[in-house]
Write a structure and sequence with these properties.
It is a single chain. Helix content is 28%, strand content 22%. It is of the alpha/beta class. The protein has 2 domains: 173 residues, 3-Layer(aba) Sandwich (Rossmann fold), CATH 3.40.50; 44 residues, no CATH class. The strands form 3 sheets. Strands 3-2-1-4-5-7-8 form a 7-stranded mixed beta sheet. A two-stranded parallel sheet has the order 6-9. Helix 1 crosses helix 4 and helix 3 runs antiparallel to helix 6. The longest helix is centred in the middle third of the chain and has 24 residues. The radius of gyration is 19 Å and the shape is globular. The chain starts with a strand and ends in a 6-residue tail after the last strand.
Length: 228
């Protein structure tokens, strides 16, 4: 039973490495110049519909930022990892939005992809802490994401996959953040308390566009780390 795995973020590849160490039959696909160090295949994400996935039981999209064509979703069961307690924080930049909004806890959600934006039924969901550095939070996502994906792969192997529908009454959707939104202006900081400022900075640590201040001479000062 073969599976295909798509991503480009380093935390996504860390989950893949954990699973490959357990000898699951998984082929990995990444974009050119991604954070992946050793994918099996390099692909153009905009031409994914030209590939043949008929040999795969399921396709996993973890840390993937491109639209998956409906043709692929309809032909092969597609799984997505979304780092939020779906149906809350659907859409782009879910991790950053949760931290900036002052959430103490988030979740790792595995769901079956459909034609909507993060609207498909959920396989598994587990709560995670959003406290500490972004590196620590990624560590939580890797640990929980590995465990939940292992459970789902076992379900596929045993032909015992179950899902439950998302509660639409709780749904919230956010847009992907733009680099210019990382600017900290005087007006913005004047309306923040210390926790809000700390959350803003730590939510936008690498690999995301870091917070910055534009000085009077036009130079940018980037804020790489913050703590209380």
């Amino acid at each position: 039973m073969k599976f295909a795995y798509f991503g480009y973020r380093s935390w996504s590849e860390d989950i893949l490495k954990n699973l490959k160490n357990e000898e699951w039959d998984i082929d990995s696909f990444a974009i050119p110049n991604s954070e992946y160090k050793s994918p099996d295949k390099i692909i153009n994400p905009k031409k994914i519909q030209d590939l043949d996935f008929s040999d795969y039981k399921s396709l996993f999209f973890y840390g993937w930022s491109w639209i998956v064509p409906e043709k692929i979703i309809n032909e092969t069961e597609c799984v997505c990892l979304h780092p939020s307690p779906l149906p809350k924080y659907r859409g782009g930049s879910p991790l950053q939005h949760q931290i900036i909004n002052g959430e103490d806890y988030g979740a790792v959600s595995l769901f079956k992809m459909d034609s909507g934006l993060d609207t498909g039924p959920i396989y598994y969901q587990e709560k995670i802490s959003l406290k500490g550095s972004l590196e620590n939070i990624f560590g939580e996502i890797i640990k929980v994401g590995t465990n939940l994906t292992r459970d789902l792969l076992t379900d596929f192997k045993n032909n015992d996959v179950k899902t439950y529908a998302q509660n639409e009454s709780l749904a919230t959707t956010y847009q992907r953040r733009k680099p210019e939104e990382s600017e900290l202006t005087y007006e913005k900081m004047k309306n923040m308390n210390s926790r809000q400022l700390n959350d803003f900075i730590r939510a936008l640590q690498d690999p995301y566009p870091n917070p910055f201040i534009i000085c009077n001479d036009g130079k940018k000062v980037y804020l790489k780390k913050s703590d209380l």
